[in-house]
Amino acid sequence: MKKGTVFVLSGPAGSGKSTVRERLMQKGLNFHYSISDTTRKPRGAEQNGVDYRFITKDEFEEGIARGDYYEYAQYTGEYYGTPVSQLIPYIERGVNVILEIDVAGAMQVRKRDKNAVLVMLLPPSYAVLEQRLRDRGTESEEKILKRLTRARDELEYFDKYDYFLQNDDGKIDECVRQLEIIAEVEANKTKNNPDFPNEFFNK
Ligand code: 5GP
Predict the structure, then answer these.
(1) What is the set of domains in the chain, with CATH numbers?
(2) Of 20, 100, 136, 146, best ligand 1 pocket probe by most atoms within 8 Å of the beta carbon
(3) Ligand 1 near 34 CB (within 6 A)
(4) What is residue 140's predicted lDDT score, i.e. its pLDDT?
(5) Quick one: which of 12, 32, 33, 51 has the most CB atoms within 10 Å?
(6) What's the pLDDT score for residue 66?
(7) Would the pTM of this model clear 0.70, i.e. be above it?
(8) How far is the CA of 198 from the centre of ligand 1 (A)?
């Protein structure tokens, strides 16, 4: 059976990742959104088990020791990780999985899965990013500055990604459309269909 593909969506906080991912999921395509574990506190209307599974540092470290994580990283002092159970069973069933994770996590995924598709989502400019983070108004100045510094570091990984999408103000749907196109193109890559010649002759 054809396996699902892992799509990694990364980008600085304020790039619109969650919105793009939510709209993609609403389309009812063959995608599972991998719900990460994190030790950070819920923000705004976030729900446990929907946006993240919010757990303690001890619980997270026990999970690391058990090998529960496909990848994990620390981001502004908190743990974030993709449980193996959010990924492997879906891929095996032919369902694509979308991971919304940071650059360190993306590099771990690339190492484990050569067919993973890495997509970086970016705002039009650094100035726009800063404005968006301040407008969100959910975090302290200290956290905002940490996220901005982090955004600079993340751009260092630009050329390690397969694709980048620019999320201009008011153009979210265009980003979602481009992501759908990327998924279609990937589905038709020969390397993602190794069994096709065999099936072709035996149908
Ligand atoms: P936020 O606190 O804004 O929700 O997320 C902070 C950063 O952690 C974002 O870049 C987000 O994509 C990333 N992140 C979320 N879940 C995971 C995960 O499971 N693994 C890794 N490596 N990063 C994650």
Answers:
(1) 6-34+95-202 (3.40.50.300), 35-86 (3.30.63.10)
(2) 100
(3) no
(4) 86
(5) 12
(6) 98
(7) yes
(8) 40
